[in-house]
Amino acid sequence: STQSTGEASRSMWVATMLHVPLFAGMSACWLGLQHLLHQLLQYMFPSHPNNMVMARCGVIWVHAVVATVRSTGFLLQTGSGLSGEYDGDHHCWGPDPTQGLWSANSIIEFSIGFALYEVVSTVLHFKEEGSLLVLHGMIMLVALVQVYSTGYQVHMMIVLLGCEASTIFLKPRQALLKYWQPGGKQVVQRNKQAPGFKALNYAFGLTFLAVRVVWVGARMVVHFRSLFLHAPVIMASECAGIVYWSSDVTMVAAQALMHLFWAKAIVEMALGGSPAGPSTTQMKFHNS
User: Fold this and answer.
1) Which of 10, 23, 97, 229 is the most buried (most CB within 10 A)?
2) This model's pTM is above 0.85
3) CA atoms of 252 and 256, how far apart (whole Å)
4) CB-hemisphere CA count at 13 Å for 145?
5) Full DSSP string of 213-263
6) Model confidence pLDDT, tens digit, residues 97-134
């Protein structure tokens, strides 16, 4: 009923507030991992100026691997959602039919802790990261908290977390570029021609196009169609409402534009227009 749905929505917001210490602790663990990786790199390369950037790449890579595995496991059990079964009239309170490792709540909790770390880290390293990544991190944090606290559009959020598959190849690429950078442009250009680095480039480009453009693009079309076809129902629901409907449309549209922007950059890189591809301070996701 509407009353029970409203009570459930309020109880989930209370539960979210009670979980703030958990999220803060998880964020502290990510900062601790960053510190350990930085210390290890300092020991291995004591005079290298980009050890902190490479340490941050390592942290993001760990999250990308875990988020990809867990979101894939969840989607294998719940289905792709391409028929719209998790949108429209079924947008609230699910799907979360599984428990433990593959449950939606545990996956989103994991990524909220990481998103909080990412906001803190990008602010602390604002000079290297820039305003775009700070804004990106804040938007993702708000979106994750919104989904976690209301149960609204859980499946779409798990699909977006699965985008981290391309980050698995992106971050080693960025770390290598930063590692080579002090050697000068000639060293960077020479190493870019190495078979291993070219393979990494192709793996990243193909994964990005397959996951973020083709797969998520198709899921976004279904999601958008449902948002507009069922707009009155969603706006009137207790767990969503017009505020969440509007923010959902805005964030999914922004995500789609971002994916198309980077897809264009990847195509240009493949055609030789930009051999280095997107810069380290521009390219990210994700956790995307």
Assistant:
1) 23
2) no
3) 6
4) 18
5) IIIHHHHHHHHHHHHHHTHHHHHHSSSSHHHHHHHHHHHHHHHHHHHHHHH
6) 455 567 888 899 899 999 999 999 988 888 777 777 78
